[in-house]
Amino acid sequence: MDELMNYRWSSYRYLRNRKKRPAMLALDECLASAGGLQDKSTGWRRYARYLAWLQEDEPTRKKMEFARMSKGWAIGERKFRKSVAAEDRDIRQRVQLTFAETREAPELQWETILESCLKVLSMNLGDAGAFPKSADWKVAIATYMKLRCMTRNAWLADKLAMGDLTGGRKTGQSLLFDIYG
Question: What pTM was estimated for this model as a whole?
Fold first, then answer.
């Protein structure tokens, strides 16, 4: 329930926080559908137990047609959906990134993950060129990063000194090309 309480797009996080509850959010129906619960602390606790029970009871969820209720980009009255759309538009306008900025953002994340991997292995990126491009530790890091965050081959090849991706099938070709195509 802690995850649900912190999930930005869930109305559950407003259940116990009436002061921050949007005016258009009427939780009475949710509480009533869970057994006639009232919008107060006792009802909130019982509603949390009800949701936990539903989480574990898939046949009941199917019977209640949860999948049908969860279709669409936002659930709620038109006024609520309009406010969500407006908030999304405002966020998108504030975050107009250039192509270079869009490309840099994941690379900064990759660098952080790469640094963590190197630290765990007690390796230094500056020494990567002294090791063969197929060194076990390089392949392990590359594999982990490809699986975890879809790191681009060219970036990995450059950072880990694993060869040149532009070399085709000639000598010096990146080992990553052989592994990941």
Answer: 0.41
CA distance 181 to 71: 37
CA–chain centroid gap for 42, Å, is: 33
**CB of 114 closer than 8 Å to CB of 128:** no
| Exposure string for 83-111, b = 16+ CB within 10 A, e = fewer | eeeeeeeeeeeeeeeeeeeeeeeeeeebe
Backbone angles phi, psi at 173, to 5 degrees: -60, 150
Q: Which two tokens stand for residue 19?
A: 């002061």
For the stretch 102-145, pLDDT in tens is 677 788 889 999 999 999 999 999 989 999 999 999 999 999 99
- Length of the chain equals 181
Tell me which residue of 122, 132, 136 sits closest to 161, measured CA to CA: 132
